[in-house]
Design a protein that fits this description.
The complex is a heterotetramer, with 2 copies of chain A and 2 copies of chain B. In chain A, helix 1 runs parallel beside helix 5, helix 4 crosses helix 5 (128-140) and helix 6 packs antiparallel against helix 7 (160-182). Chain A starts with a strand and ends with a helix. Chain A is built from 20 helices and 25 strands. The longest helix of chain A has 23 residues, at 160-182. By secondary structure, chain A is of the alpha/beta class. By secondary structure, chain B is α/β, with parallel strands linked by helices. Chain B has helices at residues 25-38, 76-86, 98-104, 106-115, 160-166, 180-192, 214-220, 233-241, 260-263, 266-269, 281-289; strands spanning 48-52, 67-70, 91-97, 120-125, 171-176, 197-202, 221-223, 246-253. In chain B, strand 7 (221-223), helix 8 (233-241) and strand 8 form a beta-alpha-beta unit. The longest helix of chain B is centred in the N-terminal third of the chain and has 14 residues, at 25-38. The chains are: A alpha/beta, B alpha/beta. Chains A and C meet through helix 11, helix 12, helix 13, helix 16 and helix 19 of A and helix 11, helix 12, helix 13, helix 16 and helix 19 of C. Strand 19 (422-424) of chain A pairs parallel with strand 2 of chain B, so a sheet runs across the interface. The structure holds thiamine diphosphate (2 copies), iron/sulfur cluster (2 copies) and magnesium ion (2 copies). One magnesium ion binds at residues 55, 97-99, 126, 128-130, 137 of chain D.
Chain lengths: 573, 292, 573, 292
């Protein structure tokens, strides 16, 4: 059995929760990235702490890769179940590297490596995962030094013994990998590029949290909920280096109300949650609408209704956020498709929220926040943290109509200036005091809705990617950016383009022109009803009747999209 | 001090359309609170924020000079503590009704006691839902008939004093608006207390609560004497459990407990409120670009 | 000054909260109805208990009337402010009956009646409102006996003294009214009809609550919130006669979860709330979607966002309820336009909820629930309380796919039969046990959404009222039924019809045909953005661009609608 | 009794995929609970409903035979009490984690104690959020470092025992899963208690709580002796406030207090569960048609 893997390899590590797959994932991605490869890692895992079957896919490539593929070139299973768990993704082209003494798999293309035995010989079965890392790195022929450096960095705090055990484990594995490579049994032929060493390696979570930092976020209030928790944890870590109030609220209702209290006082607060936690925040969103408070809301989507599948991915919260909160008031919803977008849109979210005094959403999902890949270094010189609050004078009125520009009155904060700042969840007059004057009511409604005009002027138009003379247009939003892009790049004989929306509300109504130019339009979403297509229809009247929908909790794979797009193109609908 | 007289009173006070019923205990609380604030030299309308929820009591911040956050029903506390976290220089009062604080807002009540943020929590306890027209509140007495509890309330009343003490509150007081001087002193002490301070004020609702009237409160309350030692937690609980006669005064007080904001990393070295701080984007750029 | 009021009179009583206007309202409507008139009463009031300015309009007519008119034929102000409060509605055609000693109004058409003096003479100023009632009844020439009977009924419990005082007060007023009538100063010439005495006099609140009773509702869980509280209070009263668990929850989240606990056990529970309270229930609605639980939700709308205008009217919660709760699952939303509809749709809501195991909404508003009018007697012989739960056997599976008909599996309840009933907010298998099997996930999503098919078969089509050969079509929903109907009846020279939706979700897509037949379609709603028109577009792709929107917290009046419809018809949009 | 052995155990128990970590205290609670139920002759899987929220603890009803309502995070109690209100013949247990019951569900905790519905409330108190990977829960000790509380927890821990007693609970107990016999007896007593019964069970989380381990609980707990009188509320609170050594046993118990459902109108004369009743539409028609 001889295998050559050219330009790209997809490695899948699988095992039970608690077997250290996450460690392998970060070791491999970091070391391979640092050695000049493009890497992309995505995990799927169960809602439990130990046991079950989880897996991580790591794509290593000579060109940027950012999407999930079904294909598994190399599989390293740490438990017997995990092979069954992966099902049809394991084909006869998949090389399996396993300790078959322990796993007792009956498979042809299996390379039996005594991962566990080596670990046990080193005195601790826990080292098995590190042996596996060594094998892979041996296959790549990475310098041993890189590995050692990284192990020292990672395990340094845990003491010398652990570090040395890990280094030994890795090098034992390394020898095996190198041997396989040297004997020509597995040849990985992917060009490395020195320049990539300087790339950052970020997750979707990192991108959102760093964007928040760059947006001047100085407070985060949240109640843990997968997959929204990551941003809370990241901010907690950043709080060691930057001024951030990090507080775990007693519930989601507290979280959003705390965020509003913070903005009222001049803070720049965010909340992070998931669908179900957000459902509890809706009254608070409505309060933001009424008192015209900025607030930034990160929502990592997962399959619903109710608790649903806590650790899986979906795009099911679009309806919810667009219509969240009772009453009528403006809002902005961003749905980044790339990590760069996640960073810049989250950064922008704070400025937009502050400028227009509205809630701004960052809508991601489990697949997006839990993926890692190379990102180019950031240049923040064009970025500004726009603080829009003003120093008040004695005559200050929070909702001054005469001073309102496109519905936006200057926002004062307490004890900065001579004025008093009064906000009220009841309908209120220009001062902010409760009123039941029905004429003022109408003026205030009009004022709040007028902000839509200004917000519409700053809509981020969808991005057209692919063949400019397209016949087929794929419409998508949020995290499906890369997978759709890669799929249509692979369908070479058709004229296809992708129209990706990273702002989903308000919608760019001008985008209808792109649809008009297409022979056929296909909507791709991770939900069962086509929420974006429906929103598009509500906003523009244009239907997109051809839909590719997935709602089993997994992201689309490149291969399945290629097949489904081809079917749609060839089929009638 | 004289320049502080009416410091918190609107110039156009006469024109204010106060939405309370004539004779309502809320008027008394408003007057007492204004007086207490006048007597606290460190406070001005500008460095004071009053946060309320929804209800008759919750309208109070609209009736005197302060920075007001009149938020959602039940949600005054999260807003108030976040304000203090963003700017510890402000004096923050969270003030609302019994339904608001102990009913809809009950979860914030128990968990913010644990936080011990340096705010004052004033509850207008009329033992009824006033604004929504007379349903039982958590503190309504057993047996009271209302439009919803047509056979009388069957749940036991919530005992905010006992729960707050048991839950670790560092300042727990009960007042009666009929006792003007006592209430004013309690409010002042509560505001000056370092940490979370609860002041539950008996407030007759002349429209919907025909049981707990001014006379009833007069008859069923007594003042804790000067010899009372509010630092004994068990004694305080005994007082809190009394049923025939209800004690007025500072029932429990514990000093020297660190406040929440003192323990926050951001304020350990730098006391400036958040709004005055700037993020250093150059530093951030370096930080990000090190994430390789 | 001589005035004759033929066929119909609009009487407005106005004063401060606490002046007993509500008492006058109920006395007058009951006595006049019992004397054979059609009556309609609607109030507008402030969010306070005493003071301010409130008013009630009572229309008395020889034909059915059910909508608000600006016109005031007779005004009885109890406070000076209330005249200013009513503004332009008080014209030189308005007769004012007032105690001008007390009010000191400077108006021409004022009949000075010493209401207060009489009351004081009787020993209590509180009787003033009853004197006013007497005056009005005197104008109508009602038999004094009717009045006495009713006063005994109303005040009987308060003791003999009070009753007698009231009777004296009423008869003093009566003499004055009768004198005005006899002298021909005010002649009210409205035909009474013996048969109407048998009519019921119900409010919107009554209609919903009685509908619930007829739907077999045996539990109500709610947290007070205007204007939803009325249904809670009504059910509490009914609980003296019928088996109903009535419990005021600690918050709205508890309320909806309690309702789900009740249905799980075989109860038939409802919740009642308003926009902001409902926002807190959304996670619970999503839970109903996931565990496939029936639940009935009454939502009385009021102006938002946030606390908004607590005692005013609006139709702003449509977006919210249609998209409430994270994830994708069926629901049904009824929006009754008449009291009969409110009764029958609420009744039906319980059966539909039980049959399809979905949340069913009754969407009303403050104007609707607080209005009173004649309603014909009910015949319940066609009504059934359909209990759809089954006795289980040992092999019972709550989400049995093989037994599912159009997505609906038989619903068991605990301890009725030998099976166990397992429900889970996580994605679950046929038994109801938590699962992370992604194939089952897809089957369960499909199962839940399949119910839409059956629900669509039972859609209540919109009602077409007016000229069948219409050129102009007015589209409306919910409480605007009567006012639109009366307005178009008054525009005699145009071919106009109304299309009223009492089911707003799922929408009857076939209704598009009505729109296609019109030269022009006008959407009428009590909100600022045209939520129904947008929903219609999302569901059908058809835009209704011409809109008449009102969002100051007051219902439309007949007169203003006539003007606005005419403007729309004559104008371009 | 022997026919009751394994009455609550699934036939295919071996195939059950239990989602807990090896060594987790939840296994012990599951076993003890099943044993306790076997010993309570009045209970069968069919007349038992177990209501839970979301978390690791909340998965427990899936692992033995019962009618299960595994609802939302924090919302087990409202569901549980409504079930009892709809059918008082059922035995209802509300069982979940500390985060679920005291954190997200805190408002239901305090207000359902006031209702005194006859249910049993079992809390798996591992002093951490297990399922979401180790953040602080309301009962986490001060100072514990977690992925979110990177500088250690700064709020005071919630004291469920003290709060429940202060709030009027009629049965308040603490157990430790390491004490199998004691815990079983407590659970049995709690279920048989007429009214709301709280059982807070110390449950080591071997994955995320490295402080409160089996050893730690062993070291820091002691059992209340036979001579302990659980009817003395003040004494009970003193026990509840102890910090260095934590008492196990029934800390407070009050008998003879009427339950909520006993006081409900619908059950005063007729004990039948709601689902068995029929509304008389003829009677209703007459009732409605009298509203003239
Ligand atoms: C989420 C929500 N639920 C319910 C209401 C309705 N509501 C307004 S005030 C109130 C109760 C007020 O009682 P309390 O807090 O005791 O204040 P009081 O009027 O007695 O001073 C309620 C239930 C609301 N505004 N928002
Ligand atoms: C509304 C909502 N918020 C947050 C979550 C996420 N969540 C699931 S379990 C959990 C905490 C679990 O802690 P605990 O109740 O102590 O149970 P344990 O896992 O420790 O047994 C949280 C926050 C959720 N499912 N729903
Ligand atoms: S209803 Fe009661 S609490 Fe409210 S203002 Fe009137 S008397 Fe005061
Ligand atoms: S995470 Fe902790 S509580 Fe959860 S199963 Fe594992 S050990 Fe038990
Ligand atoms: Mg109150
Ligand atoms: Mg826990």
């Amino acid at each position: 059995m001889n295998t050559t893997l050219k330009d790209e390899v997809s490695i899948v590590l699988a095992g039970e929760a608690g077997q250290g797959i996450q460690t392998i994932e970060s070791l491999l991605t970091y070391i391979l990235k640092r050695d000049g490869y493009y890497v992309f890692a995505t995990k799927e895992y169960m809602s439990r702490i130990r046991g079950g079957s989880n897996s991580t896919e790591i794509r290593v490539s000579s060109r940027p890769v950012n999407s999930f593929v079904d294909r598994i070139d190399i599989l390293i299973p740490l438990s017997r179940n995990s092979v069954t768990h992966l099902g049809k993704r394991v084909t006869d082209k998949t090389l399996i590297i396993a300790d078959n003494e322990a796993l007792k798999l009956e498979m042809d293309n299996l390379i039996d490596v005594p991962l566990l035995k080596i670990a046990n010989d080193l005195g601790n079965p826990i080292f098995a995962n590190i042996v596996a890392v060594g094998v892979v790195l041996g296959l790549f022929g990475i310098r041993v030094k890189s590995i050692e450096d990284y192990l020292v960095e990672t395990f340094g705090r845990k003491g010398k013994e652990i570090v040395e055990g890990n280094i030994l484990a890795a090098s034992k594995g390394y020898q095996i990998g190198k041997e396989l490579r040297d004997k020509g049994q597995i040849i990985i032929d992917i060009e490395a590029d020195e320049d990539l060493k300087e790339d950052l390696l970020l997750s979707g979570t990192d991108s959102v949290a760093l964007g928040a930092l760059a947006g001047g976020c100085d407070s985060i209030f949240a109640y843990p909920m997968t997959p929204g928790t990551g941003v809370l944890t990241a901010m907690a870590n950043f709080s060691k280096h930057f001024d951030i109030v990090v507080e775990q609220a007693e519930d989601e209702i507290a979280a959003i109300n705390m965020a509003l209290g913070s903005w009222y006082t001049g803070g720049r607060a965010m909340v992070t949650t998931s669908d179900g936690g957000f459902a509890l925040m809706e009254e608070g969103v409505s309060l933001a609408g009424m008192i015209e408070s900025p607030v930034v809301i990160h929502l990592g989507q997962r399959p619903a209704p109710a608790t649903g599948l806590p650790t899986r991915t979906a795009q099911e919260a679009l309806n919810l956020v667009v219509h969240a909160g009772h009453g009528e008031f403006p809002r902005i919803v961003y749905a980044p498709g790339t990590f760069e977008q996640a960073f810049y849109l989250t950064q922008k979210a704070f400025n937009m929220a502050d400028k227009y005094q509205v809630p701004v959403f960052i809508l991601t999902d489990q697949f997006f926040v839990d993926s890692y890949s190379n990102v180019k270094k950031f240049d923040l010189s064009d970025i500004k943290i726009e603080k829009h609050f003003v120093e008040t004078d004695e005559n200050y009125k929070r909702y001054d109509l005469s001073k309102a520009v496109k519905g936006v009155s200057p926002r004062g904060i307490p004890n900065f200036g001579k004025g008093l700042v009064i906000v009220d969840s009841d309908e209120h007059d220009e001062h902010g005091h409760i009123t039941e004057n029905l004429e003022i009511r109408v003026k205030m409604v009009d004022k709040r809705l007028k902000k839509f005009e200004a917000i519409n002027d700053e809509i981020i138009s969808p991005e057209l990617v692919g063949d400019e003379n397209y016949e087929y247009l794929i419409v998508c939003w949020g995290s499906n950016y890369h997978v759709v892009k890669e799929a249509i790049e692979n369908i070479k004989d058709k004229k296809i383009a992708m129209l990706h929306f990273s702002q989903v509300f308000p919608l760019d109504k001008g985008s209808v022109k792109y649809l008009e130019n297409a022979k056929k339009v296909i909507d791709i979403e991770n939900n069962a009803t086509g929420q974006f297509a429906r929103l598009f229809k509500a906003e523009t009247g244009v239907s997109i009747d051809s839909k590719i929908l997935k709602y089993n909790g997994m992201p689309f794979s490149v291969e399945e999209l290629i097949i489904k797009i081809n079917e749609k193109i060839e089929g009638d609908l | 001090m004289s320049d502080r007289q009416n410091l918190f009173t609107f110039e156009n006070e006469k024109e204010l359309d106060i939405a309370w019923c004539p004779g309502c205990g809320n008027f008394g609380i408003l007057n007492i609170l204004k007086k207490a604030l006048e007597e606290l030299e460190e406070i001005t309308p500008n460095n004071l924020v009053v946060v309320s929820g929804i209800g008759q009591a919750a309208k109070i911040p609209h009736y005197f000079k302060n920075n007001t956050f009149n938020g959602l029903h039940g949600r005054a506390l999260p807003v108030a503590v976040a304000i203090k976290m963003a700017n510890p220089e402000l004096f923050v009062i969270a003030e609302s009704g019994d339904g608001d604080m102990y009913g809809e807002g009950g979860n914030h009540f128990i968990h913010n006691i644990r936080r011990n943020v340096d705010i004052t929590n004033i509850v207008h306890d009329n033992r009824v839902y006033g604004l929504t027209k007379g349903q039982a509140s958590p503190t309504t007495q057993k047996g009271m008939v209302t439009p919803v509890q047509v056979n009388g309330v069957i749940s036991d009343p919530f005992n905010p004093i006992a729960v707050a003490i048991a839950n670790g509150a560092t300042f727990v007081a009960r007042a009666f608006v009929g006792d003007v001087k006592g209430t004013k002193e309690i409010i002042k002490r509560a505001i000056r207390h370092k940490g979370y301070a609860l002041v539950d004020i008996f407030q007759p609702c002349v429209t919907f609560n025909r049981i707990n009237t001014y006379a009833w409160f007069n008859q069923h309350t007594y003042k804790l004497g000067d010899d009372y030692d509010p630092t004994d937690k068990i004694k305080a609980l005994e007082i809190a459990f009394q049923e025939d006669k209800l004690a007025l005064g500072i029932i429990y007080e514990e000093d020297g407990i660190p406040t929440f904001e003192e323990q926050l990393n951001v304020y350990k070295e730098n006391k400036e409120p958040l709004y005055k701080r700037q993020r250093d984007l150059k530093e951030l750029e370096m930080f990000i670009n090190a994430m390789k």
